[in-house]
Protein backbone atom coordinates (compact mmCIF):
# COMPACT_ATOMS: atom_id res chain seq x y z
CA UNK A 1 0.00 0.00 0.00
CA UNK A 2 2.73 2.35 1.05
CA UNK A 3 4.86 1.56 -1.97
CA UNK A 4 1.84 1.95 -4.22
CA UNK A 5 1.22 5.38 -2.72
CA UNK A 6 4.82 6.40 -3.14
CA UNK A 7 4.67 5.42 -6.76
CA UNK A 8 1.30 6.83 -7.78
CA UNK A 9 0.51 9.27 -4.97
CA UNK A 10 1.90 12.44 -6.46
CA UNK A 11 0.37 11.58 -9.81
CA UNK A 12 -3.06 11.14 -8.20
CA UNK A 13 -2.73 14.44 -6.39
CA UNK A 14 -1.84 16.18 -9.65
CA UNK A 15 -4.83 14.64 -11.44
CA UNK A 16 -7.09 15.73 -8.58
CA UNK A 17 -5.59 19.21 -8.71
CA UNK A 18 -6.11 19.54 -12.47
CA UNK A 19 -9.68 18.25 -12.41
CA UNK A 20 -10.48 20.36 -9.34
CA UNK A 21 -9.19 23.48 -11.06
CA UNK A 22 -11.17 22.68 -14.21
CA UNK A 23 -14.31 22.08 -12.17
CA UNK A 24 -13.78 25.41 -10.42
CA UNK A 25 -13.55 27.20 -13.76
CA UNK A 26 -16.67 25.34 -14.88
CA UNK A 27 -18.64 26.34 -11.76
CA UNK A 28 -17.62 29.99 -12.03
CA UNK A 29 -18.51 29.90 -15.73
CA UNK A 30 -15.02 30.82 -16.86
CA UNK A 31 -14.94 34.04 -14.83
CA UNK A 32 -11.19 33.71 -14.23
CA UNK A 33 -10.46 33.21 -17.92
CA UNK A 34 -12.71 36.10 -18.93
CA UNK A 35 -10.94 38.42 -16.48
CA UNK A 36 -7.46 37.37 -17.64
CA UNK A 37 -8.58 37.77 -21.24
CA UNK A 38 -9.83 41.27 -20.47
CA UNK A 39 -6.47 42.26 -18.97
CA UNK A 40 -4.56 40.81 -21.93
CA UNK A 41 -6.57 42.45 -24.71
CA UNK A 42 -7.09 45.77 -22.90
CA UNK A 43 -4.15 47.53 -24.59
CA UNK A 44 -5.68 46.74 -28.01
CA UNK A 45 -8.95 48.52 -27.37
CA UNK A 46 -9.26 52.28 -27.68
CA UNK A 47 -11.67 54.37 -25.67
CA UNK A 48 -13.30 56.36 -28.43
CA UNK A 49 -16.62 55.59 -29.99
CA UNK A 50 -16.57 55.36 -33.79
CA UNK A 51 -19.19 57.90 -34.75
CA UNK A 52 -20.00 58.06 -38.40
CA UNK A 53 -19.17 54.47 -39.04
CA UNK A 54 -22.68 53.16 -38.75
CA UNK A 55 -24.65 56.06 -40.11
CA UNK A 56 -26.68 53.73 -42.30
CA UNK A 57 -27.49 51.42 -39.45
CA UNK A 58 -28.53 54.39 -37.35
CA UNK A 59 -30.90 55.57 -40.08
CA UNK A 60 -32.51 52.12 -40.24
CA UNK A 61 -32.96 52.17 -36.50
CA UNK A 62 -34.64 55.58 -36.59
CA UNK A 63 -36.87 54.50 -39.45
CA UNK A 64 -37.90 51.44 -37.51
CA UNK A 65 -38.56 53.49 -34.43
CA UNK A 66 -40.64 55.95 -36.43
CA UNK A 67 -42.80 53.19 -37.95
CA UNK A 68 -43.35 51.83 -34.49
CA UNK A 69 -44.33 55.18 -33.00
CA UNK A 70 -46.68 55.94 -35.89
CA UNK A 71 -48.41 52.60 -35.48
CA UNK A 72 -48.90 53.23 -31.82
CA UNK A 73 -50.14 56.75 -32.21
CA UNK A 74 -52.73 55.52 -34.67
CA UNK A 75 -54.10 53.08 -32.20
CA UNK A 76 -53.64 55.02 -28.98
CA UNK A 77 -53.87 51.94 -26.95
CA UNK A 78 -52.61 50.90 -23.63
CA UNK A 79 -49.30 49.70 -24.99
CA UNK A 80 -48.36 53.32 -25.25
CA UNK A 81 -47.24 53.27 -21.66
CA UNK A 82 -44.64 50.62 -22.48
CA UNK A 83 -42.83 52.66 -25.06
CA UNK A 84 -41.31 55.34 -22.94
CA UNK A 85 -37.93 54.03 -23.97
CA UNK A 86 -35.02 53.30 -21.71
CA UNK A 87 -35.34 55.22 -18.50
CA UNK A 88 -31.81 54.93 -17.20
CA UNK A 89 -28.54 56.11 -18.66
CA UNK A 90 -26.90 53.51 -20.81
CA UNK A 91 -23.45 51.98 -20.47
CA UNK A 92 -21.24 51.89 -23.56
CA UNK A 93 -19.11 48.80 -23.80
CA UNK A 94 -16.53 47.54 -26.33
CA UNK A 95 -16.83 44.05 -27.78
CA UNK A 96 -13.55 42.37 -26.81
CA UNK A 97 -14.23 38.76 -27.78
CA UNK A 98 -16.47 36.45 -29.79
CA UNK A 99 -18.03 33.16 -28.78
CA UNK A 100 -15.60 30.35 -27.99
CA UNK A 101 -17.63 27.70 -29.79
CA UNK A 102 -19.00 27.59 -33.35
CA UNK A 103 -22.40 26.43 -32.15
CA UNK A 104 -23.00 29.47 -29.97
CA UNK A 105 -23.59 33.11 -30.83
CA UNK A 106 -22.16 35.07 -27.95
CA UNK A 107 -19.91 38.07 -27.52
CA UNK A 108 -17.71 39.17 -24.64
CA UNK A 109 -17.93 42.84 -23.58
CA UNK A 110 -15.26 44.87 -21.82
CA UNK A 111 -17.58 46.18 -19.11
CA UNK A 112 -18.69 44.30 -16.04
CA UNK A 113 -20.08 44.71 -12.57
CA UNK A 114 -17.50 47.44 -11.90
CA UNK A 115 -19.35 49.53 -14.48
CA UNK A 116 -22.75 48.60 -13.08
CA UNK A 117 -23.65 45.87 -15.55
CA UNK A 118 -25.98 43.15 -14.29
CA UNK A 119 -27.36 39.93 -15.72
CA UNK A 120 -30.54 40.42 -17.73
CA UNK A 121 -29.58 43.89 -19.00
CA UNK A 122 -30.48 44.57 -22.63
CA UNK A 123 -27.76 45.12 -25.23
CA UNK A 124 -28.41 47.27 -28.30
CA UNK A 125 -26.29 48.80 -31.02
CA UNK A 126 -26.89 51.29 -33.79
CA UNK A 127 -29.56 49.41 -35.73
CA UNK A 128 -31.42 47.83 -32.87
CA UNK A 129 -31.45 44.90 -30.50
CA UNK A 130 -28.33 42.76 -30.13
CA UNK A 131 -28.98 40.47 -27.15
CA UNK A 132 -28.99 40.27 -23.41
CA UNK A 133 -26.37 39.89 -20.70
CA UNK A 134 -26.15 36.35 -19.37
CA UNK A 135 -22.97 36.41 -17.27
CA UNK A 136 -21.07 39.20 -15.57
CA UNK A 137 -17.60 39.29 -14.02
CA UNK A 138 -15.79 42.30 -12.53
CA UNK A 139 -14.62 43.71 -15.88
CA UNK A 140 -16.35 41.62 -18.53
CA UNK A 141 -19.83 40.48 -19.40
CA UNK A 142 -21.10 37.82 -21.77
CA UNK A 143 -23.96 38.54 -24.18
CA UNK A 144 -26.28 35.92 -25.66
CA UNK A 145 -27.03 37.31 -29.12
CA UNK A 146 -30.56 37.19 -30.50
CA UNK A 147 -29.06 35.31 -33.46
CA UNK A 148 -28.21 32.35 -31.21
CA UNK A 149 -30.42 29.35 -31.98
CA UNK A 150 -31.15 28.83 -28.29
CA UNK A 151 -32.51 32.35 -27.88
CA UNK A 152 -36.15 33.14 -28.50
CA UNK A 153 -37.45 36.68 -28.38
CA UNK A 154 -41.12 37.68 -28.38
CA UNK A 155 -41.70 40.13 -31.25
CA UNK A 156 -44.46 41.75 -33.27
CA UNK A 157 -44.89 43.25 -36.68
CA UNK A 158 -44.90 46.98 -36.18
CA UNK A 159 -47.48 47.69 -38.90
CA UNK A 160 -50.07 45.04 -38.13
CA UNK A 161 -49.20 44.02 -34.56
CA UNK A 162 -48.96 40.37 -35.62
CA UNK A 163 -47.37 38.48 -32.74
CA UNK A 164 -44.73 35.79 -32.77
CA UNK A 165 -41.17 35.09 -31.76
CA UNK A 166 -37.80 35.13 -33.48
CA UNK A 167 -35.22 32.40 -33.20
CA UNK A 168 -31.65 32.52 -34.48
CA UNK A 169 -29.68 30.12 -36.59
CA UNK A 170 -30.67 27.82 -39.39
CA UNK A 171 -29.76 26.94 -42.90
CA UNK A 172 -27.95 29.66 -44.87
CA UNK A 173 -29.13 32.31 -42.47
CA UNK A 174 -25.93 33.23 -40.77
CA UNK A 175 -25.59 35.85 -38.13
CA UNK A 176 -27.59 38.64 -39.68
CA UNK A 177 -30.80 36.70 -40.29
CA UNK A 178 -33.29 35.15 -37.89
CA UNK A 179 -36.50 33.20 -38.30
CA UNK A 180 -39.81 34.63 -37.13
CA UNK A 181 -42.58 32.23 -36.19
CA UNK A 182 -46.13 33.55 -35.93
CA UNK A 183 -48.78 32.45 -33.49
CA UNK A 184 -51.57 33.19 -35.95
CA UNK A 185 -52.32 30.89 -38.86
CA UNK A 186 -52.62 33.72 -41.37
CA UNK A 187 -50.53 36.62 -40.16
CA UNK A 188 -50.65 40.02 -41.77
CA UNK A 189 -47.04 40.40 -42.85
CA UNK A 190 -45.24 41.38 -46.02
CA UNK A 191 -41.69 41.86 -47.18
CA UNK A 192 -40.19 45.07 -45.79
CA UNK A 193 -42.24 45.15 -42.59
CA UNK A 194 -40.43 46.30 -39.48
CA UNK A 195 -40.12 43.87 -36.57
CA UNK A 196 -39.85 45.14 -32.99
CA UNK A 197 -39.89 43.47 -29.58
CA UNK A 198 -43.42 42.71 -28.45
CA UNK A 199 -45.30 44.04 -25.43
CA UNK A 200 -45.69 40.38 -24.38
CA UNK A 201 -41.92 40.10 -23.90
CA UNK A 202 -40.62 39.27 -20.46
CA UNK A 203 -36.96 39.68 -21.24
CA UNK A 204 -36.94 42.89 -23.26
CA UNK A 205 -38.61 46.27 -23.29
CA UNK A 206 -41.32 46.53 -25.95
CA UNK A 207 -40.68 48.46 -29.13
CA UNK A 208 -36.94 47.90 -29.60
CA UNK A 209 -36.24 47.68 -33.37
CA UNK A 210 -34.97 44.26 -34.44
CA UNK A 211 -35.04 44.01 -38.21
CA UNK A 212 -36.90 43.99 -41.47
CA UNK A 213 -38.85 41.16 -43.07
CA UNK A 214 -36.85 39.72 -45.95
CA UNK A 215 -38.96 36.79 -47.12
CA UNK A 216 -42.33 35.31 -46.23
CA UNK A 217 -43.36 31.65 -46.36
CA UNK A 218 -47.01 31.30 -45.41
CA UNK A 219 -47.12 27.67 -46.56
CA UNK A 220 -44.69 26.54 -43.88
CA UNK A 221 -46.10 23.97 -41.46
CA UNK A 222 -47.09 24.02 -38.61
CA UNK A 223 -46.83 27.82 -38.38
CA UNK A 224 -46.04 30.41 -41.05
CA UNK A 225 -42.33 31.27 -41.16
CA UNK A 226 -40.75 34.57 -42.00
CA UNK A 227 -37.08 35.44 -42.43
CA UNK A 228 -36.03 38.67 -40.74
CA UNK A 229 -32.81 40.53 -41.50
CA UNK A 230 -31.38 42.12 -38.36
CA UNK A 231 -30.71 45.84 -38.64
CA UNK A 232 -27.83 45.78 -36.16
CA UNK A 233 -24.69 44.61 -38.03
CA UNK A 234 -23.68 42.21 -35.26
CA UNK A 235 -20.69 40.78 -37.10
CA UNK A 236 -19.08 44.18 -37.60
CA UNK A 237 -19.87 45.81 -34.29
CA UNK A 238 -17.15 47.00 -32.01
CA UNK A 239 -19.20 48.92 -29.48
CA UNK A 240 -22.61 48.30 -27.99
CA UNK A 241 -24.89 50.05 -25.51
CA UNK A 242 -26.10 48.27 -22.38
CA UNK A 243 -29.48 49.31 -21.01
CA UNK A 244 -30.37 48.58 -17.39
CA UNK A 245 -33.46 46.40 -17.29
CA UNK A 246 -35.02 44.18 -14.67
CA UNK A 247 -36.90 41.25 -16.07
CA UNK A 248 -40.57 41.17 -15.10
CA UNK A 249 -40.11 37.44 -14.76
CA UNK A 250 -39.77 37.56 -11.00
CA UNK A 251 -43.17 39.22 -10.55
CA UNK A 252 -45.04 36.63 -12.53
CA UNK B 1 21.89 27.89 -23.36
CA UNK B 2 22.56 28.30 -19.64
CA UNK B 3 18.85 27.76 -19.05
CA UNK B 4 18.92 24.39 -20.72
CA UNK B 5 21.92 23.40 -18.59
CA UNK B 6 19.86 24.01 -15.46
CA UNK B 7 17.16 21.67 -16.71
CA UNK B 8 19.77 19.03 -17.45
CA UNK B 9 21.06 19.11 -13.92
CA UNK B 10 17.88 19.33 -11.91
CA UNK B 11 15.01 16.90 -12.58
CA UNK B 12 12.85 18.68 -10.03
CA UNK B 13 13.23 22.04 -11.79
CA UNK B 14 12.48 20.31 -15.07
CA UNK B 15 9.26 18.92 -13.60
CA UNK B 16 8.16 22.33 -12.34
CA UNK B 17 8.95 23.93 -15.68
CA UNK B 18 6.95 21.18 -17.39
CA UNK B 19 3.88 22.13 -15.36
CA UNK B 20 4.41 25.80 -16.16
CA UNK B 21 4.52 24.94 -19.85
CA UNK B 22 1.39 22.75 -19.64
CA UNK B 23 -0.68 25.31 -17.74
CA UNK B 24 0.74 28.20 -19.78
CA UNK B 25 -0.02 26.61 -23.14
CA UNK B 26 -3.59 25.77 -22.07
CA UNK B 27 -4.04 29.34 -20.88
CA UNK B 28 -2.77 30.70 -24.21
CA UNK B 29 -5.26 28.44 -26.05
CA UNK B 30 -8.08 29.69 -23.81
CA UNK B 31 -7.15 33.31 -24.46
CA UNK B 32 -6.98 32.84 -28.24
CA UNK B 33 -10.47 31.27 -28.28
CA UNK B 34 -12.54 34.49 -28.18
CA UNK B 35 -10.27 36.49 -30.48
CA UNK B 36 -10.63 36.89 -34.21
CA UNK B 37 -7.03 36.84 -35.32
CA UNK B 38 -6.51 37.56 -39.01
CA UNK B 39 -6.01 34.35 -40.96
CA UNK B 40 -7.73 32.13 -38.44
CA UNK B 41 -11.21 32.32 -39.89
CA UNK B 42 -12.69 30.07 -42.55
CA UNK B 43 -16.33 30.76 -43.44
CA UNK B 44 -16.74 32.34 -40.04
CA UNK B 45 -15.33 29.29 -38.25
CA UNK B 46 -12.18 29.58 -36.15
CA UNK B 47 -9.81 26.77 -35.12
CA UNK B 48 -10.80 24.61 -32.20
CA UNK B 49 -7.66 25.39 -30.18
CA UNK B 50 -8.58 23.20 -27.22
CA UNK B 51 -9.07 20.23 -29.52
CA UNK B 52 -5.63 20.80 -31.03
CA UNK B 53 -4.14 20.94 -27.55
CA UNK B 54 -5.85 17.69 -26.51
CA UNK B 55 -4.56 15.92 -29.65
CA UNK B 56 -1.00 17.21 -29.16
CA UNK B 57 -1.11 16.14 -25.52
CA UNK B 58 -2.58 12.67 -26.12
CA UNK B 59 -0.52 11.69 -29.14
CA UNK B 60 2.34 10.25 -27.07
CA UNK B 61 0.45 9.42 -23.91
CA UNK B 62 -1.87 6.77 -22.50
CA UNK B 63 -5.65 6.79 -23.13
CA UNK B 64 -6.18 7.60 -19.43
CA UNK B 65 -4.00 10.71 -19.67
CA UNK B 66 -5.82 11.70 -22.84
CA UNK B 67 -9.17 11.27 -21.13
CA UNK B 68 -8.15 13.39 -18.13
CA UNK B 69 -6.97 16.22 -20.40
CA UNK B 70 -10.27 15.97 -22.30
CA UNK B 71 -12.36 16.13 -19.15
CA UNK B 72 -10.41 19.08 -17.73
CA UNK B 73 -10.48 21.18 -20.91
CA UNK B 74 -14.10 20.18 -21.58
CA UNK B 75 -15.12 21.47 -18.16
CA UNK B 76 -13.30 24.74 -18.78
CA UNK B 77 -14.85 25.28 -22.22
CA UNK B 78 -18.29 24.44 -20.85
CA UNK B 79 -17.75 27.10 -18.23
CA UNK B 80 -16.89 29.66 -20.90
CA UNK B 81 -20.03 29.01 -22.98
CA UNK B 82 -22.66 27.79 -20.57
CA UNK B 83 -25.57 29.85 -19.40
CA UNK B 84 -26.44 28.78 -15.88
CA UNK B 85 -29.30 29.91 -13.72
CA UNK B 86 -31.59 31.28 -16.38
CA UNK B 87 -35.22 30.32 -16.30
CA UNK B 88 -36.97 28.89 -19.27
CA UNK B 89 -40.14 30.83 -19.69
CA UNK B 90 -43.15 28.76 -20.49
CA UNK B 91 -46.74 29.75 -20.93
CA UNK B 92 -48.14 32.62 -22.89
CA UNK B 93 -49.29 36.16 -22.51
CA UNK B 94 -52.97 37.06 -22.60
CA UNK B 95 -52.47 39.29 -25.59
CA UNK B 96 -51.65 36.38 -27.88
CA UNK B 97 -54.26 33.83 -29.04
CA UNK B 98 -55.33 31.42 -26.33
CA UNK B 99 -55.02 28.25 -28.37
CA UNK B 100 -51.31 28.78 -28.78
CA UNK B 101 -49.27 27.07 -26.16
CA UNK B 102 -45.79 27.92 -27.38
CA UNK B 103 -43.30 29.52 -25.02
CA UNK B 104 -43.20 33.24 -25.62
CA UNK B 105 -39.50 33.46 -25.08
CA UNK B 106 -37.01 31.01 -23.85
CA UNK B 107 -33.35 30.55 -23.18
CA UNK B 108 -32.26 26.96 -23.34
CA UNK B 109 -30.56 25.78 -20.18
CA UNK B 110 -29.55 22.32 -21.33
CA UNK B 111 -26.75 22.33 -23.85
CA UNK B 112 -24.24 19.88 -25.26
CA UNK B 113 -21.15 19.43 -23.14
CA UNK B 114 -17.64 19.74 -24.57
CA UNK B 115 -16.46 17.08 -22.15
CA UNK B 116 -17.72 14.23 -24.33
CA UNK B 117 -16.14 15.40 -27.55
CA UNK B 118 -12.74 16.33 -26.08
CA UNK B 119 -12.49 13.19 -23.93
CA UNK B 120 -13.33 10.85 -26.80
CA UNK B 121 -10.85 12.61 -29.09
CA UNK B 122 -8.19 12.39 -26.34
CA UNK B 123 -8.73 8.66 -25.87
CA UNK B 124 -8.86 7.90 -29.61
CA UNK B 125 -5.70 9.90 -30.28
CA UNK B 126 -3.84 7.98 -27.59
CA UNK B 127 -5.13 4.66 -28.97
CA UNK B 128 -3.92 5.17 -32.53
CA UNK B 129 -1.02 2.86 -33.23
CA UNK B 130 1.33 5.58 -34.32
CA UNK B 131 4.35 3.38 -34.80
CA UNK B 132 2.50 1.29 -37.28
CA UNK B 133 0.35 3.69 -39.20
CA UNK B 134 1.52 7.20 -38.64
CA UNK B 135 4.89 8.83 -38.38
CA UNK B 136 5.26 11.60 -35.87
CA UNK B 137 5.39 14.70 -37.97
CA UNK B 138 3.32 17.72 -38.84
CA UNK B 139 1.31 15.99 -41.50
CA UNK B 140 0.14 13.17 -39.27
CA UNK B 141 -0.71 15.55 -36.43
CA UNK B 142 -2.71 17.63 -38.91
CA UNK B 143 -4.49 14.48 -40.07
CA UNK B 144 -5.36 13.41 -36.53
CA UNK B 145 -6.64 16.92 -35.76
CA UNK B 146 -8.71 16.84 -38.95
CA UNK B 147 -10.34 13.56 -37.95
CA UNK B 148 -10.66 14.66 -34.33
CA UNK B 149 -12.45 17.88 -35.31
CA UNK B 150 -14.97 15.96 -37.42
CA UNK B 151 -15.59 13.46 -34.61
CA UNK B 152 -15.91 16.20 -32.02
CA UNK B 153 -18.42 18.27 -34.06
CA UNK B 154 -20.39 15.11 -34.80
CA UNK B 155 -20.63 14.37 -31.09
CA UNK B 156 -21.86 17.93 -30.46
CA UNK B 157 -24.45 17.66 -33.24
CA UNK B 158 -25.58 14.29 -31.89
CA UNK B 159 -26.07 15.84 -28.48
CA UNK B 160 -28.08 18.67 -30.02
CA UNK B 161 -30.32 16.27 -31.90
CA UNK B 162 -31.07 14.39 -28.69
CA UNK B 163 -32.50 17.60 -27.25
CA UNK B 164 -35.59 18.98 -28.87
CA UNK B 165 -34.73 22.64 -28.65
CA UNK B 166 -33.08 22.93 -32.04
CA UNK B 167 -34.53 21.78 -35.33
CA UNK B 168 -32.77 18.43 -35.89
CA UNK B 169 -32.61 18.77 -39.68
CA UNK B 170 -31.00 22.19 -39.35
CA UNK B 171 -28.50 20.91 -36.79
CA UNK B 172 -27.19 18.39 -39.31
CA UNK B 173 -26.98 20.88 -42.17
CA UNK B 174 -25.12 23.22 -39.80
CA UNK B 175 -22.95 20.29 -38.79
CA UNK B 176 -21.68 19.73 -42.33
CA UNK B 177 -20.57 23.34 -42.63
CA UNK B 178 -19.09 23.62 -39.13
CA UNK B 179 -17.37 20.22 -39.10
CA UNK B 180 -15.64 20.67 -42.42
CA UNK B 181 -14.49 24.25 -41.87
CA UNK B 182 -13.42 23.50 -38.33
CA UNK B 183 -11.46 20.42 -39.44
CA UNK B 184 -9.66 22.27 -42.23
CA UNK B 185 -8.76 25.38 -40.25
CA UNK B 186 -7.85 23.44 -37.07
CA UNK B 187 -5.56 21.05 -38.88
CA UNK B 188 -3.83 23.95 -40.64
CA UNK B 189 -3.11 25.66 -37.33
CA UNK B 190 -2.26 22.48 -35.39
CA UNK B 191 1.55 22.70 -35.96
CA UNK B 192 1.63 26.07 -34.17
CA UNK B 193 0.78 24.29 -30.93
CA UNK B 194 2.38 20.95 -31.76
CA UNK B 195 5.86 22.16 -32.62
CA UNK B 196 6.87 24.01 -29.42
CA UNK B 197 5.15 21.58 -27.05
CA UNK B 198 6.59 18.56 -28.81
CA UNK B 199 10.09 20.05 -28.78
CA UNK B 200 9.91 20.56 -25.03
CA UNK B 201 8.50 17.09 -24.28
CA UNK B 202 11.12 15.46 -26.53
CA UNK B 203 13.86 17.36 -24.72
CA UNK B 204 12.46 16.38 -21.34
CA UNK B 205 12.18 12.72 -22.29
CA UNK B 206 15.72 12.68 -23.63
CA UNK B 207 17.08 14.05 -20.37
CA UNK B 208 15.14 11.59 -18.29
CA UNK B 209 16.55 8.54 -20.02
Care to give the gist of this entry?
The complex is a heterodimer of chains A (252) and B (209). Chain A is of the alpha+beta class.
Fold topology:
The complex is a heterodimer of chains A (252) and B (209).
Chain A: H1 2-27, H2 31-41, H3 55-75, E1 91-98, E2 106-109, E3 122-125, E4 128-136, E5 141-145, E6 151-157, E7 163-167, E8 177-182, E9 194-197, E10 209-217, E11 225-230, E12 239-243
Antiparallel strand pairs in A: 1-2, 1-12, 2-5, 3-4, 3-12, 4-5, 6-7, 6-9, 7-8, 8-11, 9-10, 10-11
Chain B: H1 2-9, H2 11-32, H3 49-58, H4 63-81, E1 106-107, H5 114-127, H6 130-133, H7 138-162, H8 168-208
Describe the structure in your own words:
- The complex is a heterodimer of chains A (252) and B (209).
- Chain A has 252 residues and is α+β, with helices and mostly antiparallel strands.
- Helices cover 23% and strands 29% of the residues of chain A.
- Chain A has helices spanning 2-27, 31-41, 55-75; strands at 91-98, 106-109, 122-125, 128-136, 141-145, 151-157, 163-167, 177-182, 194-197, 209-217, 225-230, 239-243.
- In chain A, the strands form two sheets. A six-stranded antiparallel beta barrel of chain A has the order 1-2-5-4-3-12.
- The N and C termini of chain A lie far apart (59 Å).
- The model of chain A is unreliable at 78-84 (pLDDT under 50).
- Chain B is mainly alpha-helical and 209 residues long.
- Chain B has a single domain (2-35, 42-81, 112-208), classed as Arp2/3 complex 21 kDa subunit ARPC3.
- Chain B is built from eight helices and one strand.
- Residues 85-104 of chain B have low confidence and may be disordered.
- The chains are: A alpha+beta (252), B mainly alpha (209).
- The interface between A and B is large, with 54 and 56 residues.
- Strand 6 of chain A pairs antiparallel with strand 1 of chain B, so a sheet runs across the interface.
Amino acid sequence: MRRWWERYGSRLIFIGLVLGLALFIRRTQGAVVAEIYYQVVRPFHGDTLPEEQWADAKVSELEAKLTEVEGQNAKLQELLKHTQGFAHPTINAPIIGRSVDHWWEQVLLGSGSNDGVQEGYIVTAPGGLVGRIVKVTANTSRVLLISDPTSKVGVKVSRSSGMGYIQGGGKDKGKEKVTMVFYEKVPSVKVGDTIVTSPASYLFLPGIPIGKVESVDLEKSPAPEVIVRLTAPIDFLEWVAIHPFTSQLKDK
Amino acid sequence: MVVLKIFEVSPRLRQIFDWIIIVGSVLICLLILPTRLPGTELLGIRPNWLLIWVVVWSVKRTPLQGAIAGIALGLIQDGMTAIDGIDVIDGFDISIPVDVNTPTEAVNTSYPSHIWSLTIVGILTALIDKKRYIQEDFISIALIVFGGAIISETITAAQYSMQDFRDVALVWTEHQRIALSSAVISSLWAPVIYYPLNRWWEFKKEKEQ
